[in-house]
Amino acid sequence: MLPAAHRVTDAASFREAVRRGRRASSPTVVAHLVLPGGPEGAGLPGLPARAGFVVSKAVGNSVVRNRVQRRLRHLVHSRLASLPGGAVLVVRALPAAAGSSSAVLGHDLDRCLSRIARPHAGASA
């Protein structure tokens, strides 16, 4: 389980991450990441990185949705240390996540995080 300081619980943070954050997708998940401190993503050392999860009814019934969310939470917990302080990560599960193993979910999550954590090549201020 994620400690309370590392959880995104308010709707405004979810909305900001989905609307303003960088996005990367894979067959099982879509990740949205907002890096604080501008486009360079320097981070805020005093604040922890936070994560939130969106698992809709399209993924499956409540048992399946909770299982997918538990797996994603466990996978993100070990990857939060690699994110800069103050970052907000929202992971949205796609219907294919229901039948995927934790290894596949972890691979897809790593791929998404590596793509969205890269510096923006074509960024102009």
What would you say this structure looks like, in words?
The chain has three helices and four strands. It is of the alpha+beta class and 125 residues long. The protein has one domain (4-117): Ribosomal Protein S5, domain 2 (2-Layer Sandwich), CATH 3.30.230.10. It has a four-stranded mixed beta sheet, with helices on both faces. β3 (50-55), α2 and β4 form a beta-alpha-beta unit. Residues 121-125 have low confidence and may be disordered.
Q: Regarding CATH, which class?
A: Alpha Beta
**C-alpha-based Rg, rounded:** 14 Å
Overall mean pLDDT score? Answer: 87
Order of helices and strands: HEEEHEH
List keywords for this structure.
Ribosomal Protein S5, domain 2; alpha+beta; 3 helices; 125 residues
Q: What would a concise description of this structure say?
A:
By secondary structure, this protein is an alpha+beta fold. It contains three helices and four strands, in the order H-E-E-E-H-E-H. It has a single domain, classed as Ribosomal Protein S5, domain 2 (2-Layer Sandwich).
